[in-house]
Amino acid sequence: MSDEQPIRSTPPLAPADPGRRRFLAASAMAASVAAVLTAAPGFAQSAIAVSSVDPAFLTLSRFLTGKPDLDGRIAALAHQGLIAADPAFPERSAELQRAIEQAGLADVDAFAASDLYADDSLKATAMAIISAFYLGQVGQGRTASFVSFEKALMFQPTEGVIVIPTYALGGPNYWDDLVLPNE
């Protein structure tokens, strides 16, 4: 046997560079955060929205919906959507709040039975707020903006009995394969 060293075809591995490892770890972390924020832009927006919910709007919404436990995130998204649809909405909602307080109304049923309900502007403002929570959207048709689907108040009466559909129950475009009766 000889004491010769075998011939290597590849150079020995260099010792790991701790600076390079930190750079790679920081790059991976930054890429992960960027991926989460760009994949779910509503996530960052919702976090901002919760902290910026208008207490007066939340109080008015609770009065009009009759729900003292409204979700602050949903209220903030509804408020933002209502303002986006109508820049004069803050003034209109403040006017509605003042009218309700001056009339000393106890609940939404009292509002519906009062003379305030006959005022088209006050009624439209109230209905816009109520619709945002019950339907989960602001506006109608192509101009509608999304507030919430799963948390829309229209689903509360059947909660626990009917599962809220979060997808087309028959699969995508299931209606294309339906056989219609001859007319």
In words, what does this structure look like?
With 183 residues, this protein is mainly α. It has a domain at 39-140. Helices cover 52% and strands 2% of the residues. It contains 7 helices and 2 strands; from the N terminus they run H-H-H-H-H-H-H-E-E. The protein has helices spanning 18-39, 41-51, 55-65, 72-85, 89-103, 108-113, 120-135, and strands at residues 137-138, 145-146. A two-stranded antiparallel ribbon has the order 1-2. Strand 1 (137-138) and strand 2 (145-146) form a beta hairpin. Helix 1 (18-39) packs across helix 2 (41-51), helix 2 (41-51) crosses helix 4 and helix 5 (89-103) crosses helix 7. The termini are far apart. The model has no long low-confidence stretch (mean pLDDT 80).
